[in-house]
């Protein structure tokens, strides 16, 4: 949206809708707000509706976060790490190139790891691998 300057593309709205579908057994309501840029809101709404109808969201291009974004995420992790043992407040400078051997964990992998550890420690549940691989891939968005 060029007016609001949030820099969220229609593809990103599609991805957020896709992630939200895994909650509440897929029951989801989308509400439009704003509307001052009809091209922007219509393209974003279309991306969301396509996902609701079962299409995969459009691919996102490479994303390089701003230094402000990295700083905000670091501050959130620093505070939340007091309550989530799987979060470690390790600061990563977004201007650095990736260094071989430096561990950077995707947030979804971090949440899955926490969920696995929690279910094991509290309920003695262990993950059961799904076979075949094509079936396992259908559950990667949970």
From TrEMBL:
<protein>
    <submittedName>
        <fullName>6028_t:CDS:1</fullName>
    </submittedName>
</protein>
